[in-house]
Automatic annotation (TrEMBL):
Residues 381-636 form the Penicillin-binding protein transpeptidase domain. It comes from Streptomyces rhizosphaericola. It catalyses: Preferential cleavage: (Ac)2-L-Lys-D-Ala-|-D-Ala. Also transpeptidation of peptidyl-alanyl moieties that are N-acyl substituents of D-alanine; [GlcNAc-(1->4)-Mur2Ac(oyl-L-Ala-gamma-D-Glu-L-Lys-D-Ala-D-Ala)](n)-di-trans,octa-cis-undecaprenyl diphosphate + beta-D-GlcNAc-(1->4)-Mur2Ac(oyl-L-Ala-gamma-D-Glu-L-Lys-D-Ala-D-Ala)-di-trans,octa-cis-undecaprenyl diphosphate = [GlcNAc-(1->4)-Mur2Ac(oyl-L-Ala-gamma-D-Glu-L-Lys-D-Ala-D-Ala)](n+1)-di-trans,octa-cis-undecaprenyl diphosphate + di-trans,octa-cis-undecaprenyl diphosphate + H(+). This is Penicillin-binding protein. Residues 746-760, 768-781 have a biased composition (Gly residues).
Length: 798
């Protein structure tokens, strides 16, 4: 080939003369000529595709996020160091005040004793691992998935979440704090990673066991072993270690001694720990099946909480933690100044009333007196403030708070809730008569409750198996007649009765609050404080607000927010006020007449638990609602016991010592306040006398139990439904001459002498006149004054 420059002609002759920019479709160009070579221009995204990012955008965003995470990790790792132990590692005192600012108690004595990991038995270590972090020795220091879940739930306000490793929990306990913030979680993340590189797993586990809170003011496994079982950690059994490990999840909630009602939940957690040990190969299945639950001993709190102070502090702490105001572990670190709603003078008056009317009547020579326990609570109806509480003889001698425990039946103090439900729902009897205080019911002993489809098969006994025949609701309330109120509960609808009780303030989770006719007899085990809240709602004309024990909380000069004190009309005022009007006669001449000693307008209701294991009086004036309960419990075994023979009485009933204590306290608490009258708006027609339904007139006296004449109802009562026939009434016995008075048996065990012949309810009759169905309102119906208990249906609750 020649070395001379070569001249190549373009493939397209027209290209040599084309001007820049000429392209497809240029003027003078032939079709298909002048096309520019190269990549075609991407069409613009249109329509719905514009709503979604391209893969380049997604990839770029992911790359940037990854770089930020990696950079943030390295930056955080470099910036966050392992700090010194926090101040919370040495807990401060919490100071509790009465509402007037005087000091109530301090609880700052921290119980902590550090031990070496080698001192902890292998089974106890395995129990803790099974409860809190089974992969502790094999997994990293942090659980990233659980961290992000907990952080997200904190940001979105979903509350407390678990999932942290033992390393993270130790970092939180020893180096940081219990606050739940994103910043704290981030610090915990980096410190845990660094700590895991600088300390061995055994060192971290040892630190965790020494700093964890187990309840009863016990920090660390050694302090917990002493607090719950009175022994050193080296001597703990597998079962005991599993129980202590269970407490780490919720210390106070699983203390079966302080809170007997928590036993099912504690047992479930205990079984979870043991089953986990078997699953991990740390416990032989045969040994597991033979393991029994180790009930811990009574707590031995500091002497600074002796007397009532410990009960009050315990109740306040439960209120704070139960309402989410302060986390339990945060509260345990101390430093809080807590002003309660408790009134110092009223509190002193309650203690004095119990001392004079209960404790002073006990005798060391009577074995039954050793079983006596007392619980009490007092609430201002308008505000819901708890102004006084009696928890027991002494917090250092009896750890369980009798005012807040939920394991004793409330008995007949529940019956007013049945009547409230009847009025609130406009309920009628089986034969169509409206339920009012003057409505007649069949009070025959063991009368079978009738439903729309006939017999329900439930036939509760009256107290002392007394037959009353046809009596009004008012009389049935005064005398606490079980057969009447069981039928009334069926007429209203057991579920409606339950709903009304909850609306008044009885917790819906109360054990044995079952929607059946028996609900009327009070098998539910609400606490004294629960019952006081419900009666305070009645006193406040049906307006309910949850009780409060705390007026103000501060820490380091900052005030902690408390729940708003809101009340709402949960039952109609007419229903609540009609119930109040009904309960007047219980105090004026029924089983609660001992409460008249208060010396001002008051209403109330007596109650007796099954087998007389507790006696109650629940009552109120317009400005103060109070409940007093006397309970029986063996001091050694903790088993509930009947009160037979206590105070030298055959029986202890609500109208006796409980009502007397109530009156003494209420009189002293309100001594400086003027007496107030009840301002009632009762339901229309509630005071109008009624006649018995057809077929019942022959069994009823023409006069009401209180001696007032009856008048025919404005409307003829409907015939009873064929499917729900009324139970036969007890036929009247022959009249006894006036000169031969007879002795009868009162509702709650009292005896009286009747001089009124015939079968009606006579003014002068204090008992069962001539053995018939007449009953008076005198001493024969005051609970526990003179009565002797007779055999009755075990299911009956008076």
């Amino acid at each position: 080939m020649s070395d001379a420059p070569q001249h190549w002609a373009p493939r397209d002759p027209s290209a040599a003369s084309a001007t820049p920019g000429d392209g497809e479709g240029a003027a003078g160009s032939a079709p298909g000529k002048g096309k520019r070579k190269g990549r075609a221009k991407r069409p613009k995204r249109t329509g719905w595709r514009r709503l979604f990012p391209t893969w380049r955008m997604v990839l770029g965003t992911a790359l940037v996020a990854s770089l930020l995470l990696v950079g943030g990790f390295f930056a955080g790792y470099q910036l966050v160091g392992i700090p010194a132990a926090n101040a919370g590692a040495e807990a401060q005192s919490n100071v509790y005040f009465y509402k007037d600012g005087t000091v109530l108690a301090r609880d700052g004595e921290v119980n902590r004793e550090k031990i070496r990991l080698s001192q902890v038995p292998a089974t106890v270590r395995h129990a803790v691992l099974a409860a809190e972090d089974r992969d502790f020795y094999s997994q990293p220091a942090v659980d990233v998935k659980a961290m992000f879940r907990a952080g997200w739930n904190t940001v979105t306000g979903k509350g407390k979440q678990g999932g942290s490793t033992i390393t993270q929990q130790y970092v939180k306990n020893y180096y940081l704090g219990q606050e739940r913030t994103v910043v704290r979680k981030a610090k915990e993340f980096f410190i845990a990673i660094k700590l895991n590189r600088e300390q061995s797993k055994d060192q971290i586990f040892e630190g965790y066991l020494n700093t964890s809170y187990f309840g009863r003011n016990a920090y660390g496994i050694q302090a917990a072993a002493q607090a719950y079982y009175g022994k050193n950690v080296e001597d703990l059994t597998t079962a005991e270690g599993a129980y202590l490990a269970s407490l780490l999840n919720a210390p106070s909630a699983y203390d079966v001694v302080a809170r007997p009602e928590s036993r099912p939940a504690a047992l479930a957690r205990w079984n979870y720990v043991l089953d986990g040990m078997v699953k991990e190969g740390w416990l032989d299945p045969g040994e597991r099946s033979a393991t029994e639950f180790p009930v811990p001993g009574e707590a031995k709190p500091p002497n600074g909480l002796s007397g009532q102070r410990g009960y009050l502090v315990q109740a306040v702490e439960q209120y704070l933690t139960g309402n989410g105001i302060i986390d339990e572990k945060t509260l345990a670190t101390g430093g809080h100044r807590i002003t309660t709603t408790l009134d110092r003078k009223k509190q002193d008056a309650f203690v004095q009333a119990v001392e004079e009317n209960v404790m002073a009547k006990r005798s060391g020579e009577r074995e039954a007196d050793e079983d006596v326990r007392v619980g009490g609570a007092s609430i201002v109806p308008e505000t819901g403030e708890v102004v006084a509480m009696y928890g027991g003889i002494d917090y250092t001698r009896q750890y369980v708070n009798n005012a807040t425990r939920r394991d004793y039946q409330v008995g007949s103090t529940f019956k007013p809730f049945v009547f409230t439900a009847a009025v609130a729902n406009g309920s009628t009897t089986q034969d169509g008569r409206g339920i009012t205080p003057e409505t007649y019911y069949d009070g025959t002993n063991k009368r079978t409750v009738q439903g729309p489809q006939g017999s329900t098969g439930y036939d509760p006994a009256n107290e002392d198996d007394v037959d009353y025949g046809q009596i009004t609701v008012r009389t049935a309330t005064d005398k606490s007649v079980n057969s009447v109120y069981a039928q009334m509960a069926q007429d209203v609808g057991p579920e409606k009765v339950r709903e009304t009780a909850v609306a008044l303030g009885i917790p819906k989770t109360t054990p044995d609050l079952t929607a059946s006719p028996s609900i009327a007899l009070g098998p539910a085990t609400a606490s004294v404080l629960d019952l006081t809240e419900a009666y305070a709602t009645l006193a406040n004309h049906g307006r309910h607000g949850p009780y409060t024990l705390v007026d103000k909380v501060t820490k380091d000069g900052s005030e902690i927010e408390l729940p708003d004190r809101k009340t709402e009309q949960t039952v109609p005022r007419e229903a609540a006020d009609t119930t109040t009007a009904l309960l007047r006669s219980v105090v004026e001449g029924g089983t609660g007449s001992a409460a008249q000693a208060v010396g001002r307008p008051a209403v109330g209701k007596t109650g007796t638990a099954e087998e007389d294991k507790a006696a109650w009086f629940a009552g109120y004036t317009p400005d103060l609602a109070t409940v007093v309960a006397v309970m029986g419990q063996d001091p050694d075994s903790g088993i509930q016991t009947p009160l037979y023979g206590a105070f030298g009485l055959a029986r202890v009933n609500g109208g006796g010592i409980p009502a007397e204590t109530w009156a003494a306290y209420t009189e002293a608490a309100l001594r400086s306040s003027p007496a107030q009258e009840f301002d009632l708006r009762t339901a229309p027609g509630s005071d109008e006398p009624q006649a018995p339904g057809e077929g019942e007139a022959a069994d009823a006296d023409p006069s009401t139990p209180d001696g007032s004449a009856t008048s025919p109802s404005s409307s003829t009562p409907a015939e009873p439904a064929p499917s729900a026939p009324a139970a036969p009434s007890t036929p009247p016995a022959p009249a006894t001459p006036p000169s031969a008075p007879t002795t009868g048996t009162g509702t709650d065990g009292g005896t009286g002498t009747g001089t009124d012949p015939g079968t009606g309810d006579g003014d002068d009759s204090n008992g069962d006149g001539n053995g018939g169905s007449g009953h008076g309102l005198g001493e024969g119906f005051i609970e526990g004054v003179q009565g002797v208990r007779s055999t009755r249906d075990p299911a009956a609750v008076g």
